[in-house]
Please model this.
Amino acid sequence: MTAAAAVPAFPHQLMRRQEAAELMEACSALLELRLLQRLEQAQPRPMGLATGRTMEPLYAALVQRLQAWPATKLEALRAGWLSFNLDEYIGLPGADQASYRNYMDVQLGQPLGLSPAQVRLPDGSADNPRVAADAYGAEVAGSGGAGFQLLGLGSNGHVGFNEPPCDADARCRVVDLSPATRQQNAGFFGGDPERVPVQAITLGVKEILQAEEIHLVVTGVAKAAVLQRLLNEPPSVDLPASWLQRHPQVWIWADGAALS
Ligand code: GLP
Model:
């Protein structure tokens, strides 16, 4: 292999802003445009959404933009809304404050007036999570994949809850959460990693790669090391996000701290 061939053809688009707030403005403007375009489509694909701290200011910026739309347009957006989230903890009732169902209700559902049926997530409180994961994967695959897929990045390189090691063809399934991820997400559980559920349902890399366009959002110095790996390492099971290199339309949105 020549030296040139070894350079990864990734990212396809690096959207860099020094301050996180500027990044969220720019990213939310693009998402607003995609939602406007979606209104013009006869059979729009669903949206692929993510949770986590990174997404909170992004959703706030997006909600602010959408709430400024004329009432008729906003109503059309509402009527046609269908989104699938990446993942959900197993064993938390949807009403639990730390569930991703609750997160989505607070961040988007309530501010935009969307029903829970329009903002779909895996059913982490199902009696049989494996059956629930298969059903959710089939639903997403049956939709043809997301129009745009939002993604955050785990400190260990996970996307959704696809923990390393993870193959490129991993599908929607039940996963065990790593100690690193339980530690990373402890803030949503009173700071106690022991309270973070040990399992989750996540869309696999396979369903994520079905999206037309992928937007990976990475902010803060705590993500600098993993982002550096992502931008420089070839795809491997050790860095699940690296499988995104196989997708032709990936946008990486990163602030100065994450690129430091
Ligand atoms: C979490 C979630 C992901 C999220 C990522 C980054 O564990 N499963 O969906 O995008 O890790 O989280 P954060 O934005 O809080 O750093």
